[in-house]
Design goal:
337 residues, alpha/beta, Cobalt-precorrin-4 Transmethylase, domain 1, Rossmann fold, 3 domains, five-stranded parallel sheet
């Protein structure tokens, strides 16, 4: 194997699972335990191949759309959220639903509904085609325009420049989002901002952590799947913050020897939908390559947990069960100096 004999790993903290992901994954696991029937899940519950494959092995059936599900069956909606149209389609098929939408995504949905009622043009900074963006835009399709990047700003048209507000996909790069917003504000000086930050606390915290590590790292490795927006952003943020090289990997099997040529310090983090077992596997492989000196770099502490979806909690209560999660896994961040 390549690499050096005595290397250092700078391990980002926080990293990995956020509260919304933990809630969604545990919701599927508990549903599999407490319902005596097939559990269907619309779209990947979270954007991580390992997690989805593990839930498939346990019996969950993943579908793209609700019309693939037998009438009257039970379906779980993913953490990314759904549009009202999807909910209506589920009702038409008499599906029973468990909504595992991240509460922070739900917050953005409610903002979209409220501003649409006030007849604002809503400029949604996000990536066209992403499940979260489709769900948010679906709340007010006649009022929402998706703005993919600063390059899209010149194409935006609004009815009244005095009644324009921006919202955001929760998993974007903070810096890139604000670059887009600044450019939008140049065109629309009275552009309103969301009442609270749309970009999720976990996305921000993971970006802050990797920014601190990147200048001291010859190589940054981000564990996360290619369709995980926040994982891809972490790789980009690392490069922008000064890492000599940055790569995203789904698992240790994607590592390449040539990445380690001349590398003394490796920065490691993971996206918000990545279980820590994948990071531990990476640390083990890095140790075998000679990078055994692991130094945690903490920039925030996350200590809040979301309760499970209401429908699932009721079913568990009926069966005398409780939410067995006893350790905080994700929410509310407090910055550390």
């Amino acid at each position: 194997m390549g690499g050096v004999s005595t290397g250092t790993v700078l391990l980002a903290e926080p990293r990995g699972y956020c509260a919304g992901v933990d809630r969604a994954v545990v919701a599927v696991e508990r549903a599999l335990e407490h319902y005596d029937e097939t559990i269907y899940v619309r779209h990947e519950i979270v954007h991580n191949k390992f997690v989805v494959d593990r839930l498939k092995e346990k019996g969950a059936v993943f579908v793209e759309e609700v019309d693939e599900i037998p009438e009257g069956a039970l379906v779980i909606f993913s953490a990314h959220g759904i549009s009202p149209k999807v909910r209506e389609m589920a009702e038409e098929r008499n599906l029973r639903t468990i909504d595992a939408t991240c509460p922070l995504v739900t917050k953005v949905h409610k903002e979209a509904v409220r501003f649409a009622r006030q007849d604002y043009d809503i400029l949604l900074v996000g990536h066209t085609g992403h499940e979260e963006v489709e769900g948010t835009a679906g709340e007010a399709p006649d009022h929402v325009q998706v703005v993919n990047s600063p390059d899209d700003v010149d194409k935006v048209t609004v009815r009244d420049p005095e009644r324009v507000v921006w919202l955001s996909q929760t998993t974007l790069s903070v810096d890139e989002t604000m670059e887009t917003v600044d450019k939008l504000r140049e065109r629309f000086p009275t552009l309103q901002s969301p009442p609270s930050d749309d970009i999720c606390y976990a996305t921000q915290n993971r970006q802050v952590a990797i920014k601190k590590i990147a200048p001291d790292a010859d190589l940054v490795l981000v564990v996360g799947s290619p369709n995980s927006s926040n994982s891809v952003r972490l790789m980009e943020v690392a490069k922008e913050a000064g890492a000599r090289a940055s790569h995203r990997i789904d698992s240790v099997h994607e590592l390449r020897d040539e990445w380690f040529d001349g590398v003394g310090t490796v920065g490691v983090t993971s996206g918000a939908s990545v279980p820590d077992v994948l990071v531990q596997q990476l640390l083990n492989v890095l140790a075998e390559r000679g990078y055994g000196d692991v130094k945690p770099v903490r920039t925030a502490t996350e200590d809040l947990m979301f309760s499970l979806p209401r429908e699932l909690r009721q079913e568990m209560k009926n069966r005398g069960a409780v939410d067995s999660r006893t350790k905080p896994t994700g929410q509310a961040a407090t910055a550390e100096s």
